[in-house]
Amino acid sequence: MIMRFLHKFSSPPYFYSISGRLLPWLTALFLALLAYGLYGGLVTAPADYQQGDSFRIIYVHVPAAWMSMFIYVVMAVSGAIGLIWRIKLAEIVSISSAPIGASFTLLALITGSLWGKPMWGTWWVWDARLTSELILLFLYLGVIGLYNAIEDSRTASRAVAILALVGVVNIPIIHYSVEWWNSLHQGPTVTKFAKPSIHIDMLIPLLVMAVAFKVYYVIALLLRSRNELVQREQGSRWLDEILENK
Amino acid sequence: MSDFLHMGGYAFYVWTSYGIAFVVMLIGIIKPLLVHKQQLRGLKLKRQRGQR
Q: Counting CB atoms within 10 angstroms of each CB, which of A14, A30, A166, A226 has the fewest?
């Protein structure tokens, strides 16, 4: 059942039409989650007893950092699927994820810097967490650069998938960096196995924002994938039919 | 309200973070939308030329 659905979903014309119908709903869901998360994070959550109101940067910083790693894994896994089974849509999802992941990585770095300055007294330190996140940004940029450097998009997808897969080693390094090395960066507050060390009124908006960012990723991914699909499929019958009806 | 904007003295850091996030995420939506429009326009022109 699921395989049949996936097979159908991965056919270009079906993907194009269903994604077009999904987008308005996803946008509404995203805006609702965002409004709730922002209100909870900026208004109802109490100020931190150590960091005051500066901790509110957490509501963009942490979801952005989570997304930067999550999207990388999606990019690498779909790249591998494209590599093994030659599924066109998997290649498209993989390469379309790269710029979105790069922008979340950039956001994690910038908001982290803006948080670090008032709390640590410095914009940047070359410690393990910050450096490995910066390497993640370079991996994304490498993927985008490599893809654009190769003319044939299917060859490019294969090359990029290999690069993305090699770079996956960086993901656990980022996650465990605050435990393996001494760092200015605070340890995990949410993803510990014990009880999270964060107040529930602070935690709920954070989780809502994390879900909102995930929905945003799906929206941006669908938009970019459609473009990549149109780029690759120009001249095909199904695309001509869509153009005729416009 | 002014207390809210003041953010306990961290207004610059907090609002710059949110501002940059807003701009980056907005561009991430608008850019692909514009590209899509361009693509469809380009393909339509190509077709019309082909039919003549």
A: A166
